[in-house]
């Protein structure tokens, strides 16, 4: 992957992490208060996980990035740009 392409995908992942956290702040208004807070916390943790993946890739810690990716729910994992996901799979030792 070209460095410029990786840089672009990292920017997209960072934005996705931010957008994920922001969207969770208002997406659960229809739930009872206690459940709203729980879902908002889960959403915030997911956003932090995406940011941790971003930081691991930026540091070229491919195994760690891939390990973190495997712990995400599918809907959260889908926030990772496909090209970057495939690179992590290749570099992180996925078979």
Which secondary structure elements does this structure contain, and how are they paired or packed?
Blueprint: H1 3-24, H2 33-58, H3 62-70, H4 74-77, H5 82-91
Can you put this structure into words, describing what you see?
It is a single chain. With 95 residues, this protein is mainly α. The protein has one domain. 75% of the residues lie in helices and 0% in strands. It is built from 5 helices and no strands. It has helices at residues 3-24, 33-58, 62-70, 74-77, 82-91. Helix 1 packs antiparallel against helix 2 and helix 2 (33-58) packs antiparallel against helix 3 (62-70).
The fraction of residues assigned to DSSP E strands is under 5%
Classify the helix fraction into a percent range: over 70%
* Radius of gyration of CA atoms, rounded to a whole number: 14 Å
Termini separation: 19 Å
| DSSP summary, beta strand count | 0
For the sheet with most strands, the description reads:
none
Structural class: mainly alpha
pLDDT averaged over residues: 90
Shape: elongated
Count of helical regions: 5
- Low-confidence stretches are none
In total, the number of domains comes to 1
Defining key terms:
5 helices; single chain; mainly alpha; elongated
